[in-house]
Amino acid sequence: MAVRIARHSSTSSFRSRARTRTGSNVSARGGQTRKVMLDSLGLAIQKRDVTRVMAMLNGDTAAFNLRDAVGIALESDLLDIATKIADMVGQGPIDVLKKASSIGCFSAVVELLKDDSLPVEGMSHCIVTAARKNHVNIVKAFLLDARSDPSACNNFLIRWAAQIGSLDTVRLLLKDTRVNIHANDHAPFLMAARHGHIDVMRLLLVHKGEGDSFGRNEQAFLVACQKGQLEVVRWLMDTCNLDPSCQNGRAVQMACTSQNEELVKFLLSDDRVDPSSLGNSALVSAVNLGCVEIAKMLLSDSRVTVSGVESKIFDEVAKRGSRDMATLLLGLGVDDEIAVSTFITACRVSNFEVVKVLLDLELVDPSCREQAGFKLVCENGSVDLVRLLLQDERVQPGRADNESIVTACTQLKTDVVRVLMEDGRCNPGARNNLGICAASEKGADELVELLLADPRVDPSEHNNYCLDGAVSSGSLATVRIILKDPRVAPNGKNNLPLRSAVSKGYKAIVELLLEDPRVDPTACVEPALKNAPQEILEILALLPQVQHAVAKFWRDPKLRIMFKKLHRDMVQQAVECARIACPVAKKLELELNTDLAAKIISFAFGNDLIVNHSDIKLARTNALISDVLCKVNK
């Protein structure tokens, strides 16, 4: 008769549980295959077909292993099947017990523990595994078995029980003399303090031993402060008569780290606590974490000052401080140099609130250090800060040869450039139109269009550098915008833009440039023959100017060979297309030699070197080829 057992905890289907066990690193296709195979395995187990199960486990394409099969059997309340499967591959009840301990099958564990033949050495592994998986009832079941060693793995169980606050488990463990509550430097007591389990701490203190002492009460106190465990702190101070100023007053600083306002308030209510200890480290921690209320509590004590820690505090305020924190600390009054440094840092990280507080309190001149702050916000693209600083008449955006707008252009901060141009005090064409040159070579079409709206910006500066840069960037939109300006000469420097576009293979830009009558396509024939991609060559080959220009290259043997190869490749493409497009092309190729047929087909398509699939062209080609065939047959 099958042994059917109730599971300790509710479980999902065996397929989903098995999927969880194997992790999520399986590919989508592999995952689907595994689902199907696990379904089949589960059905075989439910039908108690052990032979089928073993066949599936031994298959070459098995997507699971013995642990999967045993786990599914346990989750299906079939302990006898799980044991039988394990036995058939040479494993015993202890291996089934390990699996049951891991997946939380409480009743299976209880049933298996009735077996007196279980090896003692395997029990420790099982109980630790159950503890690591937080199966409390299973751990308790093991502890009731005399064969279990509760001190296994360097007293792992007492540390684990103290951490989760399982008072009953701790009591069971303390009944065994092998358990050492002082193991790992009093770790159980510290674990309980860290997680706020006062009952466990009280129990551990009772069992600490005659004449023994934890010697870690202060450490537990600091750990509790760090984790914000107010009740643990109260209990330790009352029970262990702890001085809250122990270890140089670190407690208040660690309490600030926990961000527990009530805990900080409680500690500060004790006259023995000095909130300025360790160089006002408590205030530094509160500021670093943005705890405004805690900072207020600390500053209400006359012993707490920012003296000596200004750089730490105000640097942190500038980087991450809120408006409230900045108002609180800056309102105390600061040295001019500290105020300037805070302002510059806040501008660098775009902290609007801190900059606003500094300006509202009139602690800093926004044009300090040669407008370094304004330059930084322009560089960072902080539009709100740019607008804020421009409201102050001391900020002159056109200073240093319009450095601000030039910087914004080079960093592609379009919105900042727009604000500066609206302000009207900047010249966007400054420094020989450096701004639009930088924007063009980076393909920033929106910024280029914005700059060209100002007549002071000349895109033809530096011998049409803007167009050259836009072509090099491969930005079709930018090239199109620049070409609209009549001052730009697309044929400059021997048609450099076209030659550059051809060499880089920018087909769309080549087509755009060729639309301009000023552009001479023959200027790019030689570089095109050398390294242009096929699609560019096809565009150029259709141009009459290029076809005439090719003739002059016949004098160069290398170019002649190169062009012949190109022509041969394109003619071959024409032949291939003609086989489909022209009904008589195949017949022509059969009756004539291939080279002659290719020449005729190429000639039939006129000046095109590739097949043009227009109806008119095809009709003309068919007529010409048919005429040739008639003459050949005669």
UniProtKB/TrEMBL annotation:
Keywords associated with the record: ANK repeat, Repeat
InterPro entries, alphabetized: Ankyrin_rpt, Ankyrin_rpt-contain_sf
Regions that span the bilayer: none
Stretches the record annotates as Disordered: 1-29
Entries under PANTHER family matching the protein: ANKYRIN REPEAT AND PROTEIN KINASE DOMAIN-CONTAINING PROTEIN, ANKYRIN REPEAT-CONTAINING PROTEIN-RELATED
Name recorded for this polypeptide: Uncharacterized protein
Originating organism: Mucochytrium quahogii
Lineage: Eukaryota, Sar, Stramenopiles, Bigyra, Labyrinthulomycetes
